[in-house]
């Protein structure tokens, strides 16, 4: 932890150019909100006038950054108690760890003091993932598992049928048959972009279902095990042979754009992709899509569990105003506002049970609502892993060191996808990184 905090202190040097949290804006107080620049978050930024109108005296300033950059700045600021942000967007990876470290405000009193907020409406697994000692320290903006979207028209033309529960071998076979170099349609799109929250998210679910582990129960690193090696070779070969051009630099956003423009037959990624795939203002494939569960090999399920959420750093100066904003962005009415303003396919999914009872949303989301809920319900280690592990998380290893370890391993994976190194060499180097981390936990256990 000392090494991590030293690293964060260095990173914090780059957290510059932001107005300090709690600064005074024109005509009132300005809340500085650090947020990831995904599609649903951009909708929230565009609706900020609604909040400011109903909360005179509070102005919102968003610091919107790409995922990898946002993670670094938010982590550095929160860990070093820099106070740059009043509200931060984090995930179920950070929330329980940061709560245990005393870095976040306990939100239970705020929720209970807010009429109609109804914390019991949150999907249970999402709520639990953001809790520490049965207390919520972050509230979900959207939640997700993972699944496969596929072009029903292309499958029909090729005489293929997507099974109700596909295996990875079947997906690889379909990708080979649907890959069309002449039309520029790749058989599949898979993330290859470095980042522990980028390429490692889908890849680790593949590793899990192949029977791999990052660490065994005694914290021995297992990145060169036969199972991990098989999974890495499978993933790299699939994306190299039948994936998108420039896969080593393609993440969620790039694959989303490619698929929505009709340039991929399948895409395995977050269930929140539907905000892209089913948006008639930007997608050319609306109405042509089918959705299937995350593919498996040896396990019953393989989807991940993830939620982008909002939290208040412990050092934030005005927690009451920060909570007012967070409550607005995560309550039941926000979903209706987005649906009425931008279309029901743009509603943040996977957090509140009540969202799935809105008639307009049920109609718009009929192709993917149940697959999303099923994926979230099945996203636990018992169903997605072959062997027990000593860490929490499915698509991530829930320890502080994983931000650095995961990023290093993802860089090796990306290099293998780009053809700059072999899978064997990439895993050998990754094993060394993981052994260093594993040994630190073994020493604590002694």
Which residue ranges are poorly predicted, with pLDDT under 50 across at least 5 consecutive positions? 1-20
Structural class: alpha+beta
| C-alpha geometry | globular
Proportion of β residues?
A: 5-15%
Quick check: average pLDDT?
Answer: 93
Q: State the assembly state of the protein chains.
A: single chain
Task: Give a quick account of the main beta sheet: strands, pairing sense, barrel closure.
Answer: 6 strands, mixed
Percent range for helical residues? 40-55%
Q: Kindly report the CATH topology of the largest domain.
A: D-Maltodextrin-Binding Protein, domain 2
What is the terminal-to-terminal distance?
18 Å
In total, the number of strands is: 11
The number of distinct structural domains comes to 2
What does this structure look like?
This protein is an alpha+beta fold. Helices cover 44% and strands 12% of the residues. Strands 1, 2, 3, 4, 7 and 11 form a six-stranded mixed sheet that branches. A three-stranded antiparallel sheet has the order 9-8-10. A hairpin with a 2-residue loop joins strand 1 and strand 2. It is globular and about 55 Å long. This is Carbohydrate ABC transporter substrate-binding protein, CUT1 family. It holds the Pfam family SBP_bac_1. InterPro entries: Bact_solute-bd_prot1 (IPR050490), SBP (IPR006059). Keywords: Signal.
């Amino acid at each position: 932890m000392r090494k991590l905090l030293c690293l964060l202190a260095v990173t914090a040097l780059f957290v510059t150019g932001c107005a300090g949290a709690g600064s005074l804006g024109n005509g009132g107080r300005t809340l500085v909100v650090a947020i990831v620049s995904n599609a649903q978050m951009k909708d929230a930024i565009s609706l900020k006038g609604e909040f400011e109108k109903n909360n005179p005296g509070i102005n919102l300033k968003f610091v919107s950054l790409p995922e990898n950059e946002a993670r670094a700045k938010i982590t550095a600021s929160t860990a070093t108690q820099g106070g740059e942000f009043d509200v931060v967007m984090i995930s179920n990876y950070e929330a329980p760890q940061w709560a245990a470290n005393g870095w976040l405000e306990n939100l239970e009193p705020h929720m209970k003091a807010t009429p109609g907020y109804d914390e019991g409406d949150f999907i249970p697994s999402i709520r639990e993932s953001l809790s520490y000692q049965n207390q919520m320290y972050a509230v979900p903006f959207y939640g997700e598992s993972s699944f496969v979207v596929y072009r029903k028209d292309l499958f029909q033309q090729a005489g293929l049928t997507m099974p109700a529960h596909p295996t990875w071998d079947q997906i690889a076979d379909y990708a080979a048959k649907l890959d069309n170099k002449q039309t520029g349609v790749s058989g599949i799109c898979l993330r290859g972009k470095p980042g522990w929250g980028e390429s490692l998210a889908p890849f680790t679910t593949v590793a899990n279902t192949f029977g791999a582990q990052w660490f065994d129960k005694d914290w021995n690193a297992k990145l060169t095990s036969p199972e991990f090696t098989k999974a890495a070779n499978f993933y790299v070969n699939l994306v190299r042979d039948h994936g998108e051009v420039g896969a080593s630099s393609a993440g969620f956003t790039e694959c989303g754009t490619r698929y929505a423009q009709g340039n991929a037959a399948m895409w395995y990624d977050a269930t929140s992709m539907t905000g892209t795939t089913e948006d008639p203002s930007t997608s050319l494939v609306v109405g042509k899509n089918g959705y299937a569960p995350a593919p498996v090999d040896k396990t019953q399920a393989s989807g991940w569990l993830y939620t982008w959420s909002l939290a208040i750093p412990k050092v934030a100066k005005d927690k009451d105003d920060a909570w007012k904003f967070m409550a607005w962005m995560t309550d039941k009415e926000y979903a209706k506002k987005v649906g009425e303003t931008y279309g029901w396919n743009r509603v943040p999914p996977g957090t509140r049970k009540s969202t799935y009872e809105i008639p307009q949303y049920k109609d718009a989301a009929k192709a993917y609502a149940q697959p999303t809920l099923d994926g979230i319900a099945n996203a636990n280690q018992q169903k997605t892993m072959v062997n027990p592990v000593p860490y929490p998380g499915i698509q991530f290893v829930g320890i502080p060191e994983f931000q650095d370890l995961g990023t290093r391993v993802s860089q090796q994976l990306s290099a293998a996808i780009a053809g700059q190194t072999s899978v064997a060499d990439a895993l050998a180097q990754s094993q060394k990184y993981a052994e260093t981390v594993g040994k630190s936990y073994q020493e604590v256990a002694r």
